[in-house]
Automatic annotation (TrEMBL):
It comes from the Bacteria. Gene3D superfamilies: 1.10.150.130, Intergrase catalytic core (1.10.443.10). Coiled coil: none annotated. PROSITE patterns: CB, TYR_RECOMBINASE. Residues 101-282 form the Tyr recombinase domain. It holds the Pfam family Phage_int_SAM_4. PANTHER family: PHAGE INTEGRASE-RELATED, TYROSINE RECOMBINASE XERC. This is Site-specific recombinase XerD. Keywords: DNA integration, DNA recombination, DNA-binding. The keyword DNA-binding applies. The lineage of its organism: Bacteria, Bacillati, Actinomycetota, Actinomycetes, Frankiales. Residues 1-87 form the Core-binding (CB) domain.
Length: 288
């Protein structure tokens, strides 16, 4: 089976477990679309048919399923990986143009509401989990992938070792509020099932907390703070990056802290947000 052969090859690739799951899921969706679509030629063996199919799939994602440009491009990246590992090579298909707007981040007012809710939250584990992407800029998979040995606490701060995409490792200084949250959780963690294991964040059964479990915790805290359902770990990561860029931090440092290898990736945080555009209109003259 084509998908089985791909996932077997993907399992040997030096990528994170989250990337493997994401790519496998997106390739599965692409292959299902191929099976239900009338195509010119065989896109699994012919390069021209491959290109036509991928372009048609891009149009399907954009116009039928109404996927956002980043979602479309992520799907195309997975499809390119599929074709690369099966020997046909990536398709010749342009990526969907990205909007020139900064990623969604919390406003200062919303961030304060979130932080106050975290401070009130009864679970030290959940509080430390929620503050990790906010103060260390971690992706959700990076957050749940942390081990105890990745956290080094000093008298005042410390650092956290983050295992990112492509097996890249970066060190991020621990901000004082995150240090306090880690300290509180590590003290309670000793009494949890599975405390002898390596995972920093445990589930109730003593295993490593899953990305789905972490997502639920963060969105639940955000909802309790009165924020909308779109406040995810990735929004907290965007808030971290946006705060640094707007605070005057150079892009090289921001890229290093986020685990990006290309400056172009972090330049988007210099773009205006939707709130910036709305506030700009307040300067227009009205006759009221």
């Amino acid at each position: 089976m084509v998908l089985t052969a791909y996932t077997t090859a993907l399992a040997r690739a030096p990528v994170s477990a989250q990337t493997r799951r994401t790519y496998a899921s997106k390739v599965r969706q692409y292959l299902a679309w191929l099976a239900d679509t009338t195509l010119d030629g065989d896109p699994l063996t012919e390069k021209a048919a491959r290109d036509w199919a991928v372009r048609d799939y891009r149009a399907h994602l954009q116009n039928v399923t109404k996927r956002a440009p980043r979602t479309v491009n992520n799907a195309l990246a997975a499809v390119d990986d599929f074709y690369t590992r099966t020997g046909l090579g990536p398709a010749t298909a342009a990526r969907a143009p990205l909007p020139r707007t900064a990623p969604r981040a919390l406003t200062r007012k919303a961030a304060v509401r979130f932080l106050r809710e975290v401070e009130r939250w009864p679970s030290p584990r959940d509080a430390a989990l929620a503050l990790t992407p906010f103060y260390a800029g971690t992706r959700i998979a990076e957050t749940v992938g942390l081990d105890i040995d990745d956290v080094a606490l000093s008298a005042r701060r410390g650092s956290v070792r983050i295992h990112g995409k492509g097996d890249q490792v970066r060190q991020v200084p621990i901000h004082p509020p995150l240090r306090a949250a880690f300290t509180g959780w590590l003290s309670e963690r000793a009494d949890w099932p599975g405390a002898e294991g390596p995972a920093l964040f445990l589930n109730q059964q003593g295993g490593r907390l899953s990305t789905a479990g972490a997502h639920t915790i963060i969105t639940t805290i955000a909802a309790a703070a009165g924020l909308d359902e779109k406040t995810t770990a990735h929004v907290l990561r965007h808030t971290f990056a946006t705060s640094l860029v707007r605070g005057g931090t150079d892009l090289v440092t921001v890229a290093e802290l986020l685990g990006h290898t290309r400056l172009e990736t972090v330049r988007i945080y210099t773009q205006p947000t939707e709130d910036d555009k709305i506030r700009a209109l307040d300067h227009l003259i009205t006759d009221e």
